[in-house]
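Hey, resending since the last one bounced:
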Amino acid sequence: MRPAGAVLLAASLLSGPAWAGKKAPPAPPLVGEHEHPSGAFTFRTPEGWTVGPLAGRPDVIEAWGGALGVRFVYQPGETGLDSMHGACMLERLAPPMDMDPRVVYEYDFLGGPFGDARALDSAFAVRYDKPIQGHRAWRQRTLTLVGGGHTLCLSSYVPADLWKRSPEARAATEAVLSSVTLRVRP
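The structure tokens again:
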């Protein structure tokens, strides 16, 4: 049961572009529940996923299940949606000098209202100079939410070849994104 004043990110908002025209496979059971240290949001993960702070950035949490990852960047208060989304899209797996500067967009800056928040959503492909977890090409999806007294960015990372060939990998990643519950401040 969600506490009063919480907003659950609905799968319909988060997975529309990913599943357009396709039948989505069932999502894996989300058995792990995790809360951000601020208490501002919770999220769930499938069995076997590891969750912890990003090295050198204790305010950023990452969840990984094999080659599938989701990064959560939270800021208290409400910042500019467009500028924050642009900054959040730069949350990459390697520094800028270690990747191809060309980014290929699947879609960019889709958005609108969502409960007490406003949302922007972008998906794109990034190619790194050196393999990360054995892969150089990755699909990144960044969703930014601003409202209810919070700013939250969610970035998912899936190797591009796995994204293309594995409906199960897509379903697992989308399930984690869709499980986020943002607590709206009174």
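The CA atoms of residues 39 and 182 lie 9 Å apart.

Sorry for the duplicate.
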